[in-house]
Amino acid sequence: MRTEKILSRVFRNLERNGYKIDDILDEEIYDEMQVAQDRIITEIFPDKIITITLETDVDEYPLTTDSSSEDNPDKIITIEDNPKKNIASVKIIELPSGWKGVIDDYGNKVIPADFQVVTNEEFINAVNATPSLSGRPRIATIIDNKLKLYPKPTSDDNGKVLKLYTYLSSSAGSIDKDNEPEVPGYCDDALEKYATAQFLEGDMRAQYLKEFEREVIRIRPIQNRKHHNLSRAPITGW
């Protein structure tokens, strides 16, 4: 696994610098790899699809990579669960079947005919213009790492799923012996350099941190290279 290879390279680096590796636990290095991964993610913003399952009369849903546990796979993550806030922005939303048809315009108010995500100001203006609107959600806005819908989902929408294509701002999970890094393999050198630096002192620590920063600078443009499968379209309106 990638984690074991990076771990071995960190131990090798420390031995070369005269460090007693018997004093270091694997878990300590995994923790530093996790910190490095989060720092890399804040630079390159990798993408991920998250899902939101609608519930009757619930109009706010957390934007998070947290999901149901193995003990309770059917559980829907709610705001009360205090989920991880690690979504940087949303690129586009894949709607449930049947949500794209033309429906009544409710007297030509400012509510759109199809579901749309709008700015906070447009959302409030629309709600104020049609305060008693009911039926399936027609608009949404994103605020405080939550997706807020209007109108509230009805029983007809209960269980329907929105798929959000998002950019992450931090890790979705943890790095350990059983879980590989979430960032691509070309980030492994950066993970190695950062984790090594945390157990060194003085000039050697500074050297490894400088190499880490150099790797991050190298990694950053890869996301936007032409024809790269991770090339990112510009985000507008979020």
- Give the uncertain stretches in residue-range form: 101-109, 226-238
Question: Ends: how far apart?
Answer: 37 Å
Helical percentage: 25-40%
Q: What's the order of the H and E elements?
A: HHEEEEHEEEHH
Beta percentage is 15-25%
Strand order of the largest sheet: 2-6-5-4
Instruction: Give the overall pLDDT as a whole number.
Output: 84
Which structural class do the helices and strands define? alpha+beta
Rg value: 22 Å
Total strands: 7
Number of domains: 2
Shape: elongated
Most strands sheet? 4 strands, mixed
How many helices? The count is 5
Description:
With 238 residues, the chain is of the alpha+beta class. It has 2 domains: 2-45 and 171-224, no CATH class; 48-168, no CATH class. Helix content is 30%, strand content 16%. The chain has 5 helices and 7 strands, in the order ααββββαβββαα. It has helices at residues 2-16, 26-44, 120-129, 188-197, 202-219, and strands spanning 47-53, 60-62, 87-94, 116-117, 139-143, 146-150, 161-168. It has a 4-stranded mixed β-sheet, covered by helices on one side. The chain has a 3-stranded antiparallel β-sheet with strand order 1-7-3, with no helix packed on it. The chain is elongated. Mean pLDDT is 84; it is low at 101-109 and 226-238.
